[in-house]
Design goal:
The chain has 104 residues and is mostly beta strands. It contains 1 helix and 7 strands.
Length: 104
């Protein structure tokens, strides 16, 4: 558990407490701008398009849940898991402040 929590702990923070849990389903919705979908991979581009990425997993899975000074960490115990991804172009102006994609 300590090794996995350390992988996701933000730089300069420490894991204060961690626990083991069981999850049944996860859904994550992310919004990005300044990029394009190139074969189900986001790449930086000079565009105002907004792309919604939907990540979903439905099954029973073991989780580690930890807290740092400023963050909540939720990580699967088995790091070799696959997810279902869905990419959609968004035209709704309410998402005008979407996170800018930047290559790490």
């Amino acid at each position: 558990m300590n090794e996995i929590m350390g992988m996701f702990c933000p730089e300069g923070e420490n894991v204060i407490t961690a626990a083991y849990g069981v999850g049944k389903a996860t859904e994550i919705h992310l919004y990005f701008s300044g990029c394009v979908n190139a074969g189900n991979k986001l790449v930086p581009a000079d565009t105002d398009n907004i792309i919604k990425v939907f990540k979903m997993k439905v099954c029973v899975c073991d989780l580690y849940i930890g807290y740092t000074e400023k963050s909540l960490i939720i990580s699967e115990c088995d790091m070799a898991t696959t997810y279902y991804y869905e990419f959609d172009d968004i035209t709704d102006p309410v998402f005008a402040g979407a996170k800018q994609y930047s290559q790490v």
